Amino acid sequence: MTAHDGSGLDARRIRFDHGDRVIIDGMHITAPGGSVTALLGPNGSGKSTLLRLIAGTLRGEVESLELDGVSLTEMQRRARAQRVALVEQEWSAAEGMTGRDIVGLGLLPHRGWLSFEGGEADADATDAAMSRAGAREFADRDAATLSGGERQRVNLARALAQRPALLLCDEPTNHLDIRAQLDALVLLRTLARDGMTVLAALHDLNHAAAFADHVVVVADGHVQAAGSPQDVLTRELIARVWHVEAEVLSRPDSDRPLIVFDAAMTPALGR
């Protein structure tokens, strides 16, 4: 599949080895522009690695990597950072930094080489990003004292301050309570409706079914399926990729699937 109308992300022939193990073996990934694409797969299937390769924070083999028809691999690092933001699960807060300081780092790609303080406009942009991510209350907190969920919101706010065309999120609901998870997913969908391309690695299949426009399932180094949640998240695929039995129902208020897992988590048939 290719991104609709040439917009969005189109990453071809991505490969990454770790030692003698092939983690990603020639994957072709697309994320349509103005949509939320959920990246799904079992633990260890390379979702985090794939996001880092696309962001350019990890080196691997990539035949082509285009966003809205423009090559990301041919861009200088600063120009790429103006287009692509990555929200990772890991947290490495600098000593003595506040939540506002962390979010302000997202503005660095847009500043001049010799500019370190951005003034009122940067302060407004930082505040707006924190408000949108639900992180305003952590602005003056020492970043080292933030909980996992609070850090997740601050990290998302930093990415929003970066004003990316492509937002990559690695488990954006990790560490969040149920309400905060739903808030984060609604925010991703709103960002996509505003024109951003969003690619988010998720572990909850029902979150993907309810909020994603497009899903990509990866396992064993390859893309196993890609398309709409309705077409991809079938009982057969779930059994084959995750090795669990599930019943796939229709939501009463939409055509999106609702996945109900066997309470006993019995192995899939045929195993």
TrEMBL record:
Keywords on record: ATP-binding, Nucleotide-binding
Entry annotated with the keyword Iron: no
Matching InterPro entries: AAA+_ATPase (IPR003593), ABC_transporter-like_ATP-bd (IPR003439), ABC_transporter-like_CS (IPR017871), P-loop_NTPase (IPR027417)
PANTHER family, per database record: ABC TRANSPORTER ATP-BINDING PROTEIN, HEMIN IMPORT ATP-BINDING PROTEIN HMUV
Name of this chain's protein: ATP-binding cassette domain-containing protein
Species whose genome carries this gene: Microbacterium sufflavum
Highest rank taxon of the organism: Bacteria
UniProt xrefs under PROSITE patterns: ABC_TRANSPORTER_1, ABC_TRANSPORTER_2
Keyword Nucleotide-binding: yes
GO molecular function, a single term: ATP binding
Boundaries of every ABC transporter domain copy: 9-245
